[in-house]
C-alpha cells in the first residue's frame, strides 16, 4: 500500500519460491556432478528459477507502470542493486582467491619452495608448473593441453567488450529520448550476448572432446570450469534480463528520466564484462 511518500510493496511469495527453486537446482547439480544422476531435479530447478524470474519481473513492471514508485523507492532500488553487485564481487573474489592461492602457494610448496616446501616429500617427482598438466598424484589425470588465449577466448573477450559499448550507446540514447536508437543498439547487445554463449558452448565441447579439460582433470580443470562456468551462467542471466529490457523498450515502458530497470541491467552487464576480462587474463593468458 502507499502511505505518505514511501511505497511499501505487498507481501510477495517470490523470494521464498525463488529460494526453493535455487535449492532444487543446486541439489540437482550436485547430484549430477557427484552421482551422475539428478538431471530431473536440475532441470526442474532451472525451470523454477526462470519461472520465478519471469513472474517476479512481471509484478515489478506492473508496480512501476502503476506509478507506485517515488524518489525514495528509486533510492532503495539503487542501494539494493549496488549491494547485490557487491555480493557478486565477493562471490567471484572467492574463486579468484582459490585460483591465486593454488598458483602462488600450494603448487610451489608441492615443488619444494617456501616455508612449507616439506610437502614436496609426498611426491618427489613433481615439478611445479602452471598450468598443471601433470598433477602430483598419479591417480589424477591432468588435461592433455590448454586453450590458446588468442583464439576463441580472445573472440569472446572482444564480443563482451563490444557489448558493453553497444549497451552504453543504447543507455545514452534512452536518456536522450531516442527510443529507436536505443532499441537497435540494445538488440545488438543481446545478439552479442547470445554469440558469447554459443562460443562458450563450443569451447566447452572442445575442452571435453579434444583437450582433455574436464572437471576431473585436476586443479586446472576444476578451477577452469568453476570460474568460466559461473561466469557463463551470469552471462545467460544477463542476456535474459536484456531481452526483457528490449521487450519493455519496444512497449515504450521507459522514459528518459525514469528507467532504473534498464540502468540496473546495464550495471549488471558491465560487471559481468569486467569479470570476464579478469578471467581472460588470469585463466587463459597468465
Automatic annotation (TrEMBL):
The keyword Translocase applies. The chain crosses the membrane at residues 12-34, 40-58, 79-102, 182-202, 222-246, 267-285. SUPFAM superfamilies: Cytochrome c oxidase subunit III-like (SSF81452). CDD domains: Cyt_c_Oxidase_III. It is a multi-pass membrane protein. InterPro entries: Cyt_c/ubiquinol_Oxase_su3 (IPR024791), Cyt_c_oxase_su3_dom (IPR033945), Cyt_c_oxidase-like_su3 (IPR000298), Cyt_c_oxidase_su3-like_sf (IPR035973), Cyt_c_oxidase_su3_a-hlx (IPR013833). It is found in: Cell membrane; Membrane. It is an enzyme of class 7 (translocase). Its EC number is 7.1.1.9. It comes from the Bacteria. Keywords: Membrane, Translocase, Transmembrane, Transmembrane helix. Residues 2-286 form the Heme-copper oxidase subunit III family profile domain. Pfam families: COX3. Belongs to the cytochrome c oxidase subunit 3 family. This is cytochrome-c oxidase. It comes from Billgrantia zhangzhouensis.
Amino acid at each position: 500500500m502507499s502511505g505518505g511518500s514511501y511505497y511499501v510493496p505487498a507481501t510477495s511469495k517470490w523470494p521464498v519460491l525463488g529460494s526453493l527453486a535455487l535449492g532444487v537446482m543446486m541439489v540437482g547439480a550436485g547430484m549430477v556432478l557427484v552421482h551422475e544422476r539428478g538431471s530431473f531435479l536440475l532441470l526442474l530447478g532451472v525451470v523454477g528459477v526462470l519461472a520465478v524470474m519471469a513472474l517476479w519481473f512481471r509484478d515489478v513492471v506492473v508496480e512501476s507502470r502503476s506509478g507506485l514508485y517515488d524518489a525514495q523507492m528509486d533510492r532503495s532500488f539503487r542501494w539494493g542493486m549496488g549491494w547485490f553487485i557487491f555480493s557478486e564481487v565477493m562471490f567471484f573474489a572467492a574463486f579468484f582467491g582459490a585460483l591465486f592461492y593454488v598458483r602462488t602457494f600450494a603448487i610451489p610448496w608441492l615443488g619444494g619452495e617456501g616455508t612449507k616446501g616439506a610437502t614436496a616429500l609426498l611426491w618427489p617427482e613433481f615439478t611445479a608448473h602452471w598450468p598443471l598438466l601433470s598433477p602430483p598424484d598419479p591417480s589424477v589425470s591432468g588435461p592433455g593441453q590448454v586453450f590458446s588465449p588468442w583464439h576463441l577466448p580472445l573472440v569472446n573477450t572482444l564480443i563482451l567488450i563490444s557489448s558493453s559499448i553497444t549497451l552504453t550507446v543504447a543507455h545514452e540514447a534512452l536518456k536522450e529520448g531516442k527510443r529507436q536508437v536505443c532499441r537497435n543498439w540494445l538488440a545488438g547487445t543481446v545478439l552479442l550476448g547470445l554469440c558469447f554463449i554459443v562460443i562458450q558452448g563450443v569451447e566447452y565441447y572442445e575442452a571435453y572432446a579434444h583437450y582433455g579439460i574436464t572437471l576431473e582433470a585436476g586443479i586446472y580443470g576444476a578451477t577452469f570450469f568453476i570460474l568460466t562456468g559461473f561466469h557463463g551462467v551470469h552471462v545467460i542471466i544477463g542476456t535474459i534480463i536484456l531481452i526483457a529490457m528490449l521487450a519493455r523498450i519496444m512497449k515504450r515502458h521507459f522514459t528518459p528520466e525514469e528507467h532504473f530497470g534498464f540502468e540496473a541491467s546495464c550495471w549488471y552487464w558491465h560487471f559481468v564484462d569486467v569479470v570476464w576480462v579478469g578471467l581472460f587474463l588470469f585463466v587463459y593468458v597468465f
